[in-house]
Amino acid sequence: MDIAVLLGEELGIRPEQVRSVMDLLADGCTIPFIARYRKEATGGLDDGQLRTLEARLDYLQRLEARKQEVAAAVEEAGALTAQLRQALAQATTLQRVEDLYKPFKKTRATRASKARDAGLGPLAAQMRAQGAPPCDPLAVAARFARAGSAFATPQEALQGAADIVAEEVANHPDATEELRGFVQRTGSIVAKGVGEEAQRDFAPYVDFSEPLRRIPGHRVLALNRGETEGKLRVTVSADEAEAVQRLERRFLRGRSPWRDVMEAAIRDGYKRLAAPALARDARNQLTAQAQADAMNVFAKNTEALLRQRPVKGARIIALDPGYRTGCKVAVLDEYGQLLAHGTVFPTPPRNQVEETKRALAQWADRFAVNTIVVGNGTASRETEEVVAQFVAEYHRPVEYTIVNEAGASVYSASEVAAREHPDLDVTTRGALSLGRRLQDPLAELVKIPPQSIGVGQYQHDMDQKQLAHTLEGVVERVVNQVGADLNTASASLLSYIAGITPAVAANIVAYRQEKGPFTSRTQLKKVPKLGPKAFQNCAGFLRINGGKEPLDATGVHPESYGVARQVLALAGVPTTEVARGGVPGLRQRLGNMVALSRQLEVGLPTLCDIVAELEKPGRDPRDDAPAPVFSRAVLSVDDLAPGLSLVGTVRNVVDFGAFVDIGVKQDGLVHISKMADGFVKHPMDVVSVGDTVTVWVEAVDKDRGRISLSMVEPR
User: More exposed terminus of the chain, fewer Cβ within 10 Å: N or C?
Assistant: First the structure.
């Protein structure tokens, strides 16, 4: 199998592009580096295409390795035929390879293996051949009966041979492939409730059936969870009669003396052996697809969250709300440095509202605070009421906003937080993190395992290793697209830069603490364990502002500095202009870019990227994201009524809709059917995490704490 050709066909790209990517990956280049700085080699494949290619390449390489393993195992058993070798060569999935291997795989003792061990294989072969000469199967079986064994009578011997045939029918790779497709096309997944708790926790599924081909992923994961918790009994239903008929058409040879026993063996092979395996396969495939879809949703939500716009110039009072232990407070300057911290008690049981307002005023006066941040967890609603009163009464403009605190407790108790702030208690670290999330969401959220950020569905039911790998790829993509300041980035942020491991990130921080700020990208080569390949991968994504080399503040890779200087010289612009905010209109000054790329002997995509960087050095793509919603009116569920229009922030997007923070204690749900006038295939086609949206209240269920919203204006 030519992997490059196969991948090219799958992904709709040229085999040459695939081979270039394979060579670059083998040479130690990272996906972000290839996507950004090797566009000519890949034909302009973007980060997403490259990651898809990498994942499929890994699968196909594992497939080829498994084919070799299976061929070797079957050959060692003396059973590798030319037909099987060809079938293995043509297999395009690991499932097909395992189907081909199954008849030869050594398993635990079965009814069929015991019959084979007793010498009934020839009788089974005669039964399967269904010879035409008249004979009495019992008379033939009598020759194989052995007194004192489990097959002492002709009937027992015949049944043993039938068990062998049943297993061969169930293990036949082509029959398995046909039946697997049949079950997945026509079967249904069925659930029944178990116990009283099922009605409470899984009411929609206590008496449930849906075709396998139509059930959406979030329902698959819900059924799996109910089954795991012992509250649902989940099965796969398929047309047994039709399945058996398909097997009979494959294995029966017209009328023969063996027909009755063959029919019985085929029915037994399907019902006892094939059907349970096919049901497992169907459930596994549903679960794998559901998890893949859920991970895709999780990945897109995480990316949207990481791409939230930084709030520059915010001097912040951050409050992490609580009841008995009070609200922890952290005061930060516009660079995220801690200025002061403390605790206030505006919520029950103390209700120190006026004391809290005075404390807020003192901090705001002393540190010129212009923004207050409130976490959206426990006691957020009561804390927000007090903050809103303070903002209305304070003598100069201050605005406030709510910040999603998902994962803040994970960070505050982590080793990263302990290293950053060893003198602060866990709760104060949490408040500090909330404030920094507003100032620079990306820089703060990279300190938290991405699966703890809280934007997804059924995350604990997924393969955690695969989820972590997927989300780490998302974080890596966003971090490298944004870039990082080499002299201010944390080790957590640096560890996501292409080519930099956590150990090297720690070494970079240690180097600048010992030697002082970096003044040149070339100094990276002096960092322990940061070798030439790591430098090639990371250099273009790390910025140095105010260094010796103005181009170090841009996304231009050091390998292209010569071209960048030639471009500036042709435009009559000194390199120092780059450090003063860039060279607006540079592309217009240069004229025909195609001709220029030939003149400079550089690829057109690379030249265009260089010019774009020189025009706007270090442009932050997050500046295009919507701004946070500030100073919302404080509401309670009692204030909500059908038809009320509100502005909210999308906190999470799932398969069936989006959860929107509208300023009350719990988020409201906009069901997918209420997101637009027309058909919506997936909520992500309409909204992303962090979006500001206008919604209308549809219904409020106070007892269950549920708010139904619509993005379609009532008529």
Answer: C
